[in-house]
Request: fold
Amino acid sequence: MNPAIVSPAAIHEYLHSRSGWIRGVEWASGRRYLPARFSDRSTPLFLVAYSFRDTRAARQLSLAVEQDWSLAPDSCRDAYDAILFQAPGLMVIQLRRSNVCGCLGHLHPAVRERAFAEPHDALGRVAAGEMDLAYRRIEAWQALPLSDTALDARFLEGSRLEDFRTKQFRLKMLSIILHETHHLVSPQEPENAIRERSLSFYHDALAAYVENATATLSLTIDRSFYRFG
Ligand SMILES: [Zn+2]
Reply:
């Protein structure tokens, strides 16, 4: 598969090309869209579809795609290279607070988001996939209880612990969208293999962040010793 490339600008243009009536109803219902792309790949384009009440979570998700991905170790990104290469050009992510079933996310058999349910000329009739994410569930989810607690304990309190928890939330979301994209690309692959890959991504990316954050922390302490010594 060689997916067509859809740019954030093309999405914007397409959304604005629709009738004023449709856009008005959509806006009034609170529907918003936020495109996000990995900095080192032109496909897939992730399109976060969310309610204006969930703007904060939608921004965190786009940061996960646009920043956290490129900060993850090379080995983490390489593990998804072939998978992302085969992914459809457009991946719609319906961001929700929770799911009735209690799952963190699902892959949808077809695109349900109305604006993207049909292929459009304006988007080069790009192939599209769709998933949903329940972000409050994800926030509360203990991805790897033992190693998460060990990493958590390396930050005491205050702003560094808060930064850590925000990063952790974003990496959980990122690992889930990679997980669902993997399911889409390899429908035959067993759940445990797909899960193992996405949890390794999460674990290794979070561990690398902690290494980096604690290294700069000890550097600051050393400097202050030097100054008062
Ligand atoms: Zn799964």
About this structure: Confidence is low (pLDDT under 50) at residues 222-229.
